Amino acid sequence: MDTDLTFHADLAALAWQLELGADLAVGETPVNRYEAVAVGTPAAPPLAAARPAAVAPAPVAGPDSTAAVRAATQAAAQAPSLEALRGALAAFEHCELKRGAKSLVFADGLPGAQVMVVGEAPGRDEDLAGRPFVGRAGQLLDRMFAAIGLSRTAMDPALALYITNVMVWRPPQNRDPTPEEVAMLLPFLQRHIALAGPKVIVVMGNTPLSALLGIRGITRLRGQWAEALGKPVLPMVHPAYLLRTPAAKREAWADLLSLKAHLRTRS
Question: Does the pTM of the predicted model rise above 0.90?
Answer without folding.
Answer: no
